[in-house]
Write a structure and sequence with these properties.
Blueprint (H helix, E strand, L loop, with lengths): L25 H12 L3 H14 L3 H20 L17 E4 L5 H9 L3 E3 L6 E3 L3 E6 L13 E2 L3 H15 L7 H12 L3 E6 L2 E8 L2 E8 L2 H17 L4 E3 L4 H4 L5 E4 H10 L11
Parallel strand pairs: 8-9
Antiparallel strand pairs: 1-3, 2-3, 4-9, 4-10, 5-6, 6-7, 7-8
Helix pairs in contact: 5-6
Amino acid sequence: MSVAYRITEVPGLFSEGVDCGSEPTPLRLRAARERLLGESLGARAARMARVGVAMASPRRLLNALAFFELMARDRAVGAAALPDPCAALPRPDGFCGAAPDISATTLMQAYAQGLHARAPFGAASWWSPATRRLRDLRAAPAASPDMTASFDNDADAIVARCALAALRRDPLTALTPDLKRAHALLLDRGYAHAWRVAGAQGYGLAIGGVFIVLGLDGAHEAARGAIAALEAELRRRNFRLLDVTFVVDALGADFADPTPRAAYLDMLAQSPDASAAARWR
């Protein structure tokens, strides 16, 4: 008796348990990403409410006035493609102006120049804080981490969880859906890398020999363990510096050295290339 097989079934004859006919279509992939990174009207209202509560202090209200004034000016006259980070405002700390373009190429150029994209009130904007929190990976080698990281798997889910963690820590650092999608595109293109260990996960961007952590999710000790596992991989790939400025609230102020903006910009300019392959395993 003869048996007929469809062409998509042939590999399954030699790979038991592998379903070769269920490759997701681009439309399904986009829909799955949107479910993770999108935001319902209710979720947006809740996020903005938390932003409003976080702003309820005289100092932050004054900072908001300066923020909206510069954003309105940039929208009226046209924002520069990328502002000078050295011209950042002292209040709110590090604010540089509107970010009309958050494409992958522009984001890479911005981070390489010491800028960071945020969207506390919806519209994206550029920031360059006066002080960065850095860890020197060339210092005495750390002990072997208790956990081994898994890299670049389920990256969209990691971005989504890190965004929720940022919202809990400080609503003004929460990511809008547009910024989450922009970060996911950096991961797609291999500019950024996500990693996971037991109880924690995060993702960040590779700029030369500097790795900038953009998101981190996990309780205090688990978050520190996740960073230790990341550092082990970064040392193996010849990175020099780890920038945890944007997640230091999850790690503790004593976890990294404060570094002035000018010194950080010099480090970026002088940082040699590190091993940042398109996909880490």
